[in-house]
Automatic annotation (TrEMBL):
Protein's name according to its UniProt entry: 2-dehydropantoate 2-reductase
Function summary: Catalyzes the NADPH-dependent reduction of ketopantoate into pantoic acid.
Listed pathway(s): Cofactor biosynthesis; (R)-pantothenate biosynthesis; (R)-pantoate from 3-methyl-2-oxobutanoate: step 2/2
Any single Gene Ontology cellular-component annotation: cytoplasm
Keywords for this protein: NADP, Oxidoreductase, Pantothenate biosynthesis
Sequence intervals crossing the membrane: none
GO molecular-function terms, A-Z: 2-dehydropantoate 2-reductase activity; NADP binding
Length: 315
């Protein structure tokens, strides 16, 4: 199968490596020419969790380009960019989307599907979320942090043939996947959980596992979960998971040694996805006349970190 992955970050590289090892023709698209050049010259380097020696990376050859206009056809598109890049990324590959080549968005943020559906027909869109984790290292190398499940679904909740085909493809390639009739609710659940983990780890500058080691951080994250659930219920969202607290602890334990993607962004002086996570929850809360003070405070703190960056350079 010809697969195009838009976004060469940690998750894009991990999915690309698994799918390429499964004898698929994989092309990654990324605007970072340094990353693209590394993938072109060396392939994707995958380090096992806990492995520190770059020489121990498993190298997986893939194609990589910065300009998707050179791609004329494919069988499946995976969108794995940060939420703030969604519109530009989808516009760049919209010529590839068709009934025979759906776009599967695998992003952790709210509002992406609405943005995508303004560019391509909604019936060509599939939604997904993954609990696979990884950390981008130098060049095109990625450290594989964990083998969490991936869920994919149709926007209308149906179980289609294309959904079954993609799920089988992923599982055959080692990406543990399930179809879901409630993918939108599942996405909300993940955003609620990670809108606690991501900004908390970024503000405190600690690996995810540290967040469950102190009662103060646990209680603060609990307030974020409670506010997020209240907002989701006000929006009429059918939440996929019933015990968000258990999901939070499980996510922290599975990625105990990982730096969250948001913390990686802060440390590398990149924009974060705070607008599509805590920011989105605040916007939905305002739309429904609900207070979400903890999310609003966390949102503002991350915005300040984006502006000033970590360290003492401002002193």
């Amino acid at each position: 199968m010809k697969i195009v992955i838009v976004g060469g970050g940690a998750i894009g590289r991990l999915f690309g490596s698994f799918l390429a090892k499964g004898n698929n023709e994989v092309t990654l698209v990324d605007i970072d020419r340094e990353v693209v050049g590394a993938m072109q010259n060396q392939g994707i380097g995958v380090l096992a969790n806990g492995e520190e020696d770059p020489e121990a990376a498993t190298v997986v050859p893939v194609k990589a380009v910065s300009d998707s206009s050179s791609i004329t056809a494919c069988d499946l598109l995976l969108l794995m960019v940060k939420s703030y890049s969604t519109r530009v990324a989808v516009e760049s590959i919209s010529h590839l989307v068709s009934a025979d080549c759906p776009l599967l968005t695998v992003q952790t943020g709210l509002g992406n599907i609405e943005v995508i559906s303004r560019i391509i027909p909604a019936d060509h869109i599939l939604a997904g979320m993954t609990y696979m984790s990884g950390t981008s290292l130098g060049g095109a190398t990625v450290r594989h942090g964990g083998d969490g499940l991936t869920y994919i679904g149709e926007l209308d909740g149906s179980l289609s043939q294309r959904l079954e085909k993609i799920t089988k493809l992923f599982n055959d390639c080692g990406i543990r996947s399930l179809t879901s009739r409630r993918i939108i609710g599942g996405l909300w659940c993940k955003v609620i959980v990670y809108s606690a983990i991501n900004p908390m780890s970024s503000i405190l500058k600690v690996p995810n596992g540290c967040l469950t080691s102190r009662m103060e951080s646990i209680m603060l994250m609990k307030r974020l979960l409670d506010e997020g659930r209240t907002v989701a219920e006000a929006c009429g969202v059918d939440l996929f998971r019933t015990d968000l607290y258990a999901d939070l602890f499980d996510a922290c334990q599975r990625s105990a040694n990982n730096l969250s993607s948001m913390l990686q962004d802060i440390l590398n002086e990149r924009s974060t996805e705070i607008d599509a996570q805590n920011g989105a929850i605040c916007r939905y809360a305002e739309d429904h006349g609900i207070a979400a003070p903890t999310h609003q405070t966390i949102f503002e703190l991350i915005k300040l970190l984006e502006r000033w960056r970590p360290g003492l350079e401002q002193l």
